[in-house]
Specification:
single chain, alpha/beta, Rossmann fold
């Protein structure tokens, strides 16, 4: 796929602050409907003392008659909120709550990992929160995710493009109710399945600006971690990744290349030899934690061969399916995940978060019962369009993830055919190699996070924060 390496225009020409009187005028004239309310959260059950950062939670109504109420957590930048970027963060799935990003990845709080014996889990401050460099809106999307809900059953039917439309509405309405952030540079980010929706969302925001939608959004770019992008690259990468990591023999790898001819998906082949080789591959790798191959396999469902090489959504679901380990000393990361259920389903916690009573039943970290249509198959075209608009982008990969391996991500970036302006080199944190990076002429930076898994900041928080802080500050990694 050959793409011009030139950058035609900036990602956005908008850098305007909407005066509060203009906001009021728009509302009175009916140009902007607004169903948005946020409330300050100063104390949280499980955290000792007042929160050392500004946290707000609330809902924004979107969709027809605003029947969908998207819940969000907003954390103001701990550095300079008047000037720092505003970052909209989406967790993957689809159907996984933004709470995962807030608590386990890039937010200012973590659970204290210890045995609780039915008591409320404790929260501790995360010194590597990305809110030290930007303000972040963590939004539960699509509807039915986390604390987001719909006011009628039909409104729960959603999909990739519908989610994008709702998020676009969400962001403009949120900015109307927070006019002090309208001039801030805006970025959209997320990981895993969000790789399919975020490039489309950024394009929708740009289109809305071009069409004169209010308020204009000062969109500058996007950030993607181990992103699902294109099945031809993503789903064919686990085999060469496993060989490079020494997980399968040279002989099996050579046979796979010969019989499958680079197409390593059971659903895409009728060749009996290829099928047999793929089943042998599965036998070799079935005992691995595919989200981070060095960690123990505990608390995750092991995928069936048809899931491992077939439907992409099933493959991503495998990462989030949780059994419930009860021993915090077992080395199972998923013990920490189970704490989120105890915490979010506590009545005092819900009251502190300003959750509307009766809006949802039991909270789920990932809801795979959504009526969801996966209707975006590839985002390569969107990356090319956004590059032509001059959007900056950071694409990073935890290099021990076998769900969306870095080899596939490298390959689709290479297929865009942009010239290299800063060739492959290591990047450092505390005098140690933290990963490797390469920068392209279209403003795209690719980086690996050494030792990172499918959600790299969860596994390598210090290194991931250093990467993000440098990039968002427009400094080289």
């Amino acid at each position: 796929m050959a793409i011009s390496s030139g950058i035609a225009t900036p990602c956005t020409l908008v850098s305007l602050r909407l005066h509060p009187f203009v906001v009021a005028f728009l509302l009175l004239q009916g140009h902007v409907q607004l169903s948005c309310c946020g409330s300050r959260v100063e104390f949280l059950p499980g955290f000792e003392g007042p929160l050392p950062f500004h946290l707000e939670t609330g809902y924004v109504g979107v969709g027809e008659s605003e029947a969908i109420q998207l819940f969000y957590y907003f954390v103001e930048s701990e550095r300079n909120p008047k000037e720092d970027a505003l970052f909209l963060w989406l967790t993957g799935g689809p159907g996984c709550s933004a709470f995962s990003g807030l608590i386990y990845e890039i937010g200012p709080l973590n659970f204290k990992i210890k045995a609780y014996n039915r008591s409320l889990p404790e929260l501790v401050f995360n010194p590597y929160s990305w809110t030290k460099a930007s303000s972040i809106i963590f939004v539960d999307s699509p509807v039915g995710t986390g604390f987001s809900y719909a006011e009628n059953p039909l409104a729960y039917e959603t999909g990739d493009f519908i989610q994008v439309q709702h998020l676009h509405q969400f962001l403009r309405k949120w900015l109307i109710s927070h006019p002090e952030f309208i001039s801030n540079p805006v970025y959209v980010g997320g990981d895993s399945y969000s790789g399919l929706t975020i490039p489309v969302l950024v394009q929708e925001i740009i289109n809305g600006n071009d069409e004169g939608e209010n308020p204009a959004i000062n969109i500058q770019g996007y950030v993607l971690g181990n992103p699902a992008t294109d099945p031809g690259f993503d789903q064919n990468a686990p085999v060469p990744f496993a060989h490079g990591m020494g997980l399968i023999s040279d002989e099996l790898y050579e046979s796979l290349k010969r019989t499958c001819r680079g197409q390593y998906q059971l659903s895409e082949t009728t060749n009996a030899e290829c099928v047999n080789d793929l089943l042998a591959f599965y036998q070799c790798t079935s005992g691995l934690q595919t989200a981070q191959i060095l960690e123990p396999l505990c608390g995750f469902a092991s995928p069936k061969p048809g899931e491992m090489f077939g439907d992409r959504r099933s493959l991503l679901e495998n990462f989030f399916l949780v059994r419930e380990p009860t021993d915090p000393d077992s080395g199972c990361r998923t013990y920490g995940y189970t704490l989120s259920y105890s915490w979010t389903n506590d009545d005092n916690v819900r009251e502190a978060l300003h959750i509307r009573k009766g809006s949802i039943g039991d909270w789920q970290r990932c809801n795979y019962g959504l009526k969801y249509t996966s209707d975006i198959s590839t985002t390569l075209e969107y990356h090319a369009k956004l590059s032509a608009k001059g959007c900056r982008s950071l694409i990073y990969s935890g290099d021990h993830d076998m769900i969306v391996p870095y080899l596939g991500t490298q390959a689709w970036i290479r297929s865009l055919n942009y010239s290299i302006v800063d060739d492959w080199r290591s990047w450092m944190v505390q005098g140690q190699v933290a990963g490797y990076t390469r920068t392209y002429s279209n403003g795209m930076t690719f980086a690996t996070v050494k030792g990172g898994g499918h959600t790299a900041p969860e596994y390598r928080p210090e290194e991931s924060f250093a990467m993000y802080e440098r990039w968002i500050s427009q400094e080289p990694l």
